[in-house]
Amino acid sequence: MLPTVPRDGESLGAFIVRVIEGLPPEQAAEWLWALGAKSPDVGDALNQIVRLPDYGLGLAYSRMSGMAGFGELGQWCRDHPDRAMDVIHAMQRVASAA
């Protein structure tokens, strides 16, 4: 069972990166989607990701916000597992910038 709560003092970005780093893209996307259903903070973190200039996953993300945006991103990851690693790499950039 994958964790759903950060360790004490661990940022959300660092937590997500720690959990999904070693997962296959499909499992990482499913876990992100499930986590977003439990934590609105994930939606906020993903909003930071989609604003990164090099993210480049399309104009659809410019309208994303909160849980609705997270659901859209989670669905996109499940539909495009070959690009789910982009989400992981973007999370790493967000975590390292924090």
3D architecture notes:
The structure is a single chain. By secondary structure, this protein is mainly alpha-helical. The chain has one domain. Helix content is about 65%, strand content about 0%. α1 packs antiparallel against α5, α2 packs across α3 and α2 crosses α5.
Secondary-structure map:
Layout (H helix, E strand, L loop, with lengths): L11 H9 L4 H14 L1 H11 L15 H14 L4 H14 L1
Helix pairs in contact: 1-5, 2-3, 2-4, 2-5, 3-4, 3-5
Summary of the model, kept short:
The chain has 98 residues and is mostly helical. Helix content is 63%, strand content 0%.
Structural class of the secondary structure composition? mainly alpha
Largest sheet: none
Instruction: Point out poorly predicted stretches.
Output: 53-69
* Average pLDDT metric: 62
Notable traits:
98 residues
